[in-house]
Amino acid sequence: MNQNLNQNLENEKREKNQEVIDTEEEIEQESLVLIQFTDLDDAKYCEKFSNQFKSIEITKPNPIIQIGNRLYQGEYQNNIGTYLYFEEKKSQQQKTEHEYFGKSFKKLVLTRLFVEEKQN
C-alpha cells in the first residue's frame, strides 16, 4: 500500500513539474491572414516589392506595414465566411493540381499612408 501511495505521489509531482514547464514556455501561434488593399494599384505594387516587406506591431489592432518605400496602416476585420488557401502542385502528367494549405477567418485591410512635412 505504501509503495502505491509513493508511486502516486511521484506521478503527481512529475505532472505538476510538467505543468510548470508547459506554462513557462513561450507560446507561438501562426495564422493566415488575407491582405486586402483599398486601392487596386497598391496590390500590383505589392507584387513587385513582396520581398521588401516590414511590419510594426503586427499583433496590434492597427499595424503599420511598409512595402518597398510605401507605408500602410492596417485594420483587422472578420471575414464573411472562410477564406481557403491552396498551393499549386505540378503533377507527373504536367497538369496543375491544387493542395489545401490553410484557412483564415480574418483579413487585414490596408490603407496607404502619406507622410507630410510638419508646418511651423
Mean pLDDT: 76
The number of domains = 1
Largest sheet: 5 strands, mixed
Helix content: 25-40%
What string gives the helices and strands in order?
HEHEEEE
State the low-pLDDT regions, or none.
Answer: 1-9
Q: Tell me what portion of residues adopts beta-strand conformation.
A: 35-45%
Count the DSSP helices: 2
Q: Which structural class matches the secondary elements?
A: alpha+beta
The overall strand count is 5
Read across the widest sheet, the strand sequence of neighbours is 1-5-4-3-2
Q: Give the name of the CATH architecture.
A: Sandwich
Radius of gyration: 24 Å
Task: Return the CATH topology.
Answer: Immunoglobulin-like
| Amino-to-carboxy terminus distance | 85 Å
Categorize the overall geometry. Answer: extended
Name of the CATH class: Mainly Beta
Region (Disordered): 1-22
Pfam family, one: TFIIIC_sub6
GO cellular component, one term: transcription factor TFIIIC complex
Protein name: General transcription factor 3C polypeptide 6 isoform X2
Explain this structure to me?
With 120 residues, the chain is an alpha+beta fold. The protein is built from 2 helices and 5 strands. Strands 1-5-4-3-2 form a 5-stranded mixed sheet. The radius of gyration is 24 Å and the shape is extended. The termini are far apart.
